[in-house]
Amino acid sequence: MPADGKITGTTTDPAIGLRNTAAECVRLVATQFGRELDWSLASLDELDGVCAELSAGGQLEGQRFDLWWKLVGAYTGEVLVRVYSGQWSTHEQAPGAFVVVVSGNTALPFGIAERVLSGEPFKSLGSFGRVLPAIIARSERPG
Q1: Alpha-carbon torsion angle 73, 76, 80, 81, nearest 10
Q2: What is the pLDDT of residues 68-106, one digit of tens each?
Q3: Strands, sheet with 105-107, edge to edge from the N-terminal-most edge strand
């Protein structure tokens, strides 16, 4: 992860910059891995495969890790935005760090991207995306 954990871009609307970064992820995955990402939850499983290929030769480090962390986090977040009608926001406790808010629940796509790219066992972008409805349902239950 970049030292400050933040994404910077050239636009004043962070959502546009994040969408552009996500679109760049789609392009790079197609050209470098021959895989198609279509903004669906299933495409997160495809991206898990790309992450596995990226780290097959050893753990990603430095600028290469930072690049893929940014691409994978932005794509994962944008899938959540599109599939669950979420919105990009900044994290309350880490100004400048981006999250996705869905039905009042905060998802950390860059956090899961870091864990997956670091090779943490049992972490999956696809599972992260699919579990969100259960988290939302649980948060809406009377307590």
Answers
A1: 60
A2: 999 999 999 999 999 999 999 998 887 778 999 999 999
A3: 87-91, 94-102, 105-107
Are residues 97 and 90 in contact, defined by beta-carbon separation less than 8 angstroms?
yes
Q: Enter the tokens of residue 133.
A: 């409805």
**4 pLDDT band (50/70/90 cuts)?**
very low
Residue corresponding to tokens 């972490």: 123
Could you tell me the pTM of the whole model? 0.89
DSSP-derived pairing of the beta strands 87-91 and 105-107: unpaired
Please state the rounded mean pLDDT for residues 19-43: 98
3-state secondary structure the chain: CCCCCCCCCCCCCHHHHHHHHHHHHHHHHHHHHCCCCCCCHHHHHHHHHHHHHHHCCCCCCHHHHHHHHHHHHHHHHHHHHHHHCCEEEEECCEEEEEEEEECCEEECHHHHHHHHHCCCCCCCHHHHHHHHHHHHHHHHCCC
Q: Identify residue 64 by its one-letter amino acid code.
A: R
